Amino acid sequence: MTFPLPEPMRRALALAEEAARGGEVPVGAVVMRGDVVIAEAANGMRRAGDPTRHAEMDAIRAALDATGSGRLDGCDLWVTLEPCAMCAGAIAHARIDRLYYGAADPKGGAVDHGPRFFAQPTCHHRPEIYGGIGEER
Prior knowledge:
The protein is built from four helices and five strands, in the order αββααβαββ. By secondary structure, the protein is α/β, with parallel strands linked by helices. The longest helix has 15 residues, at 7-21.
């Protein structure tokens, strides 16, 4: 995608940069409902000593808390790196409408690589997927 990047991806990239400065894997995530930011997070696995503290997981948890709901219907997730299988599962269970991600992750990604989570017949919800947004950054 050519610049300027959409604001949610610019914010996710800024969160990824903050994570990198803190010694984390540089991933940032933003949950949007329309033009409103519902929640955002950066990777926090090393800081928290918790392997589930991926940016997507923390952003989804915060969005669920903010909305008071167990689902995120009508929401979009913007993330700087192709989600892993754990995060793809959370995206499906949260019923996120659209997933926008930056860089592909041939090793750990599970959307367009590896298990291709959303293409599996056992996947109950499949978001619209848009990859490669700002992948140069």
